[in-house]
Design goal:
Layout (H helix, E strand, L loop, with lengths): L4 H18 L5 H4 L6 E2 L1 H19 L4 H11 L10 E4 L9 H7 L8 E9 L2 E10 L6 H9 L4 H4 L6 E9 L18 E4 L5 E10 L5 E10 L14
Length: 237
């Protein structure tokens, strides 16, 4: 499914109109059901609007790490002041193929380092990332910290003032059926919670130096933990 800003605007309008007629005070019952998104049509609308917002934020910023820092803080997914931490996953080496080398403008013999990390906000994994980068295009200090620590790639190379070229952005799950915006029938309300699959978004991108030289190719998969906060209290009970 491809995101569009016109679709996003329709979602926002629908949600705001619903809020006007259904917003209500916070109750003790609300506080006891912190992590549930109800299986109602409006809650599904809200979940899709939230995913659209996250997707737009990621696509409009060069660093996914810094975007997730802000998402983590804004949605209180970890204690105040927490920053995204990269958990380096060993034993999942994926040598750069011809496609990756073409994206990075390197020949068959140029060294490329592969790094697989899980980006965590507190105890929540928000994304998994495959990263292929050209060490010769980074500083010695950057290569050292990437080789010896669990720092996130975006934080390690932040001083490069890099840019990001997004190749694809894919919605892996939609709370609403295809064609919902063209009068397709919405799911009926459920008394149970909305349960998304493990991964919700997938992005492919290339990071570039200021002169346009590519130095990193990434595949980022965003988990359902990006929605692991109380649903907006705008739906009727």
């Amino acid at each position: 499914m491809v995101f569009s800003f016109s679709t996003f605007n329709r979602l926002v309008t629908f949600t705001v109109m619903a809020a006007i007629v259904s917003v209500r005070p916070l109750t003790a019952d609300d506080l006891s059901s912190q992590q549930q998104w109800p299986g109602t049509p409006l809650s599904r609308m809200e979940a899709l609007a939230v995913l659209q917002t996250l997707n737009a934020n990621l696509l409009s910023n060069a660093s996914a790490t810094l975007t997730l820092d802000r998402w983590c803080e804004a949605h209180r997914l970890a204690p105040p002041g927490s920053k995204i931490v990269a958990k380096h996953v060993q034993g999942h080496d994926k040598p750069a193929n011809v496609h990756i080398r073409k994206l990075l403008h390197v020949g068959p013999n140029e060294p490329i380092v592969y790094r697989h990390v899980r980006l965590a906000c507190g105890d929540r994994i928000l994304s998994e990332a495959d990263n292929w980068y050209v060490p010769a295009r980074l500083t010695a200090e950057m290569n050292e910290v990437l080789n010896t620590t669990d720092i996130s790639f975006g934080r390690a190379v932040r001083s490069l003032n890099f840019t990001r070229t997004n190749l694809t952005a894919r919605l892996l799950w939609s709370p609403l059926p295809e064609g919902w915006d063209m009068s397709a029938e919405l799911p009926v309300s459920s008394s149970g919670p909305l349960i998304p699959p493990p991964f919700l978004l997938e992005h492919h991108a290339v990071l570039k130096l200021q002169d346009g030289t590519p130095f990193s190719a990434v595949v980022e998969s965003y988990t359902n933990n990006v929605l692991d906060f109380p649903a907006p209290l705008l739906y009727p009970q």
